[in-house]
Amino acid sequence: MRYFLSSILKVIPVLLMISFIVFFLVRLTGDPVSLMLPETATDQQREDLRQSLGLNDPIYIQYFTYMADVIQGDFGESFRYNQPAIDIVLERLPASFTLAISSMIIATIIAVPAGIYSAIKRNTFADLIITGSSVLGKAMPNFWLGIMLILILAVQFSIFPVSGSGTIAHLVLPSITLGTAIAAEMTRLIRSSMLEVLGSEYIRTARSKGLRETIVVNKHALRNALIPVVTIMALQTATLIGGTLITETVFSWPGMGQLLVQAVNARDMAVVQAATFIIAILVILSNLTADLTYRFLDPRIKYED
């Protein structure tokens, strides 16, 4: 509990730093007033809007005002949607969660058996195929794989919808696209982790007792081999979020990634800041969850607050 509480306290300066960086980077992209008003707007109208938004105040005053609002859950109003920015982001969050979870499920289904089998069949032809496929899967850009899946499975054979959402069929292609790179990374990690565990003394002892290989692998080796996998799965949260920015755009999936790309293009500062803040919280929480999961997988691990 002490470790958990100290970790929560460490989150605060991280979020402050992120808010500071995003706040200033967004304002370096240009004047949002030029986007919010038509070209026919007068100079007085532009000045009045700039004054109402507080853009004439010194930059440090703008930041303190922004943080005071953020503490209250107010990230401002989107000028594109005429709605509170946080409401728009939270409305898109379930779609991104659905895509991320389905992608992780696909990656796990592929990576766990492939990594274990590759370790058991080390230096065989099957091991070569699996490791080669992992390298290829990691090297393929998300946008290229997504386009290829659309051309083959959606356009050529009409098995899945080209884009959009609403049914499970719409979820298949973006999930495969996003899950492929994660599966490749997890497969390689599981293989190396299993090889290390299978060479341990207690595994040799278990085999010397005459236990079946399936029991040795599944009961004794797999649990300890999963500890570094938890690490990579937590770190893959950032990869998932980065991948959704591209994947959701390619497949027109109505998630937070597509919203963020559109907001950046439109210089919708409120939405960009709200989305980035939510993403930062998700990444931090995933890493904290991984730390707490270590203790469950290996009771020998001790925490220091």
TrEMBL record:
Set out the biological process GO terms recorded for this chain's protein.
transmembrane transport
Q: What is its main location?
A: membrane
A GO-annotated cellular component: plasma membrane
**Assigned keywords, A-Z:** Cell membrane, Membrane, Transmembrane, Transmembrane helix, Transport
Checking Pfam families in the record gives: BPD_transp_1, BPD_transp_1_N
Which compartments is it annotated to reside in? Cell membrane
Its transmembrane ranges are 7-26, 97-120, 141-160, 166-184, 225-246, 270-290
**The protein, known as:** Peptide/nickel transport system permease protein
Native organism: Piscibacillus halophilus
